[in-house]
Write a structure and sequence with these properties.
Elements: E1 7-14, E2 24-31, E3 36-40, H1 47-54, E4 62-67, E5 70-71, H2 77-83, E6 84-87, H3 99-104, H4 119-131, H5 147-160, E7 165-169, H6 177-194, E8 197-201, H7 205-211, E9 214-219, E10 222-227, H8 229-232, H9 235-242, E11 246-250, E12 261-265
Parallel strand pairs: 3-8, 3-9, 6-7, 7-8
Antiparallel strand pairs: 1-2, 1-4, 4-5, 9-10, 11-12
Length: 281
């Protein structure tokens, strides 16, 4: 076991009922505390399934997940909820609620059965609203928000929980450039200043490369590469996993992300040099 790991995943395998194919096959990695760890890969590569296994929503067919030195089955749901904040992909809220009320739900794991929010709870909610740039939306019904605004409200709910770890599945989906960058900057700030561990699934390879400390690249449920971005996002690996020709350059900066690998999809030829049919899948 890796000393002091937030998450440690060992030889994880999982298959959905009725499927002859493993959704995850032999996945192993460790996430150190206070780092930003991204999981990348094509659609159907097992990214969201992996997050569900990390959270105990699915049970592995083989292998195990350890969180903070304790195997996942040893955690009660309430204790785990106090430790880990979750931002699901496209989370839908089916009942009428304001933005502030949805963010306040992040405090529930810290309240007793009949507990009422106190000063510290209200302060945590206010800070989460501000960090996600939705103070002006606090009293608006969630049903009247755009997709991007709703996504930021869900991130704020997780932040209000003040967790040791954040697990996010495509948190910047539907966001414009400004708010997309704000979320990544916020996640990086949480790791650097608040020592929060962040595990993030994203399709944004270039943003992941600029902000992640380490990455896991999945291919058909199996790990294709794991490590720092400059070791994972190699041209050969990206072309093999995504099935498309790319060039890999360095981010020009300025800033701390200068030199991070950046992926540029190419047009006209496949990795073997043959012409590509623009309509091919």
């Amino acid at each position: 076991m890796s000393a002091g790991a937030a998450f440690e995943v060992s030889d994880l395998c999982f298959a959905y009922e009725g499927s002859s194919r493993l959704a995850l096959d032999g996945v192993s990695f460790a996430v150190a505390p206070g780092v930003l760890y991204t999981v990348i890969g094509p659609n159907g590569s097992g990214k969201s399934t992996l997050l569900k296994l990390l959270l105990g929503a699915l049970q592995p067919a083989q292998g195990r997940v350890v969180y903070a030195g304790r195997p996942l089955p040893g955690w009660s749901r309430r204790d785990l909820a106090r430790q880990i904040g979750v931002v699901p992909q496209g989370g839908e809220i089916m009942f009428p609620v304001t933005v502030r009320e949805i963010v306040e739900m992040g405090r529930y794991p810290h309240l007793g059965l009949l507990g009422r929010p106190g000063r510290l709870d209200h302060a945590a909610v206010d800070e989460a609203l501000e960090r996600c740039d939705i103070v002006g939306l606090a009293d608006r019904p969630l049903s009247r928000l755009s997709g991007g605004e709703r996504q930021r409200a869900l991130v704020a709910r997780a932040l209000a929980q003040q967790p040791a770890t954040l697990v996010l599945d495509e948190p910047t989906i539907s966001l414009d450039i400004r708010h997309e960058m704000q979320i990544f900057e916020l996640l990086a700030e949480l790791t650097r200043q608040d020592s929060v561990t962040v595990v993030l699934v994203t399709h944004h390879l270039n943003l992941a490369a600029r902000y992640a400390d380490r990455m896991l690249l999945l291919d058909g449920g199996a790990p294709a590469a794991e490590g720092p971005p400059n070791q994972v996002l190699r041209r050969e690996a990206v072309e093999q996993v995504y099935g498309w020709p790319v060039a890999v350059g360095a981010h020009p900066g300025p800033g701390r992300d200068a030199g991070a690998p950046q992926i540029l999809p190419l047009a006209g030829t496949d990795p073997s040099g043959e012409p590509v049919d623009g309509g091919a899948s």
